[in-house]
Amino acid sequence: MPVMPDPLQQLFSNLDKWRHLPNYQLERRLDIFFTPYLVDLLTAHVGTPLLPVIVPEMPLKRADSSKSRKVDYVLFAADGSAVYFVELKTDRGSRRDVQDQYLADAVVRGFPQILRDLLQILSDTNSHHKYFHLLTLLERANQLKIAEHVAPALYPVRRRGFCFSDGCVEVVAAGAPIRVVYIQPAKTDGCDCIDFTEVAHFVGRHADPVSRLLATHLARWQPAAGTMPPEGRDV
After folding, report:
1. What confidence tens digit (pLDDT) does each residue in 172-185 have?
2. Cβ-count burial of 228 within 10 angstroms (0-12 exposed, 13-18 middle, 19+ buried)?
3. pLDDT: is 98 or 51 the higher one?
4. Are strands 144-146 and 83-88 parallel, antiparallel or unpaired?
5. Is the entire prediction scored with pTM above 0.85?
6. By the 8 A CB rule, do 207 and 229 touch?
7. For the purposes of burial, counting CB atoms within 10 Å of the CB of 208, is it exposed (0-12), middle (13-18) or buried (19 or more)?
8. Can you tell me the mean pLDDT for 223-228?
């Protein structure tokens, strides 16, 4: 019987090979591997301790509807001095002007207004359970307060006739400035970036197999200028 390759080694080997395929989005597969290190990595980058709360796929409401764009991760300074929007990019070509612009617009709008927009999305959705979990994360980050009657009205089943009203959730965010940070293969001008070399060095301090493999591959995926085409392009 053939010896099965080490599953963890095989997983990273597949990521390394498949990232070059036309429709394979590495960042959507790789992002979960960043999350155990994200709080400490960002703390080291910004020089400010963070709360141990990560909000993934934070909705940013569109101006003309209750549809939304998403921020990969939102984190919070422990002293309340800043809110961090973190975007993960594994491809030098995946930065888009339209995304940079809506993130810049979000910085101007401020996090309290983003939370009020979120409550508007919530009032128009049927996915109340999922949004309640999102609100709970934001409450843990001291950004809003959920009324005591809300959880019993949703669990274990949603109470008939229950809807989110103005009294269900209170926005208590103090209006700390938003700082946008990109994690991407290489630094670019005019961007607050953590490049893969920095991440690999940070992750490589850990001795466990996942950390060692991630650090090795991130160092490999750090491109020399002009030598590696973006993932998903013909090679």
Report:
1. 999 999 999 999 99
2. middle
3. 51
4. unpaired
5. yes
6. no
7. exposed
8. 48
